[in-house]
């Protein structure tokens, strides 16, 4: 249960419980309040932070959240190699090693 923009939002485990709760709330509060059934996002917090908002579909299209991410593996590996070589260079300097340089060897 939480408040957003002057509205109380409550998450229930299933639709049947949600419908029963709506009836109880409407009967308790009377006509002075509006009770509406909505679908609340259940996305992980990290997705919300990168503005990856869910798509709200019709009832016939609901069924879960599918998240696909494409990774540029060549670029990711290049950045990893650069980071490792930088780490090695720093460590060699810290240890005052006589090594002149750190290079990546091409492999077949």
TrEMBL record:
Pfam families linked to this entry: Sec_GG, SecD-TM1
Origin: domain of life: Bacteria
Span of domain SecD export protein N-terminal TM: 4-37
Xref: InterPro entries: SecD-TM, SecD/SecF_CS
Keyword field contains Transmembrane: yes
Keywords: Cell membrane, Membrane, Transmembrane, Transmembrane helix
Protein name as it appears in the record: Preprotein translocase subunit SecD
Organism: Neisseria gonorrhoeae
């Amino acid at each position: 249960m939480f408040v957003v923009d002057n509205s109380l939002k409550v998450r229930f485990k299933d639709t049947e419980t949600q419908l029963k709760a709506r009836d109880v709330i409407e009967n308790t509060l009377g006509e002075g309040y509006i009770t509406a059934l909505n679908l609340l996002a259940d996305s992980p917090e990290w997705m919300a932070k990168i503005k990856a908002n869910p798509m709200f579909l019709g009832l016939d299209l609901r069924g879960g959240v599918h998240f696909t991410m494409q990774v540029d593996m060549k670029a990711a590996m290049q950045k990893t190699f650069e980071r490792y070589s930088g780490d090695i260079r720093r460590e060699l300097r810290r240890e005052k090693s006589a090594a002149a340089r750190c290079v990546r060897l091409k492999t077949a």
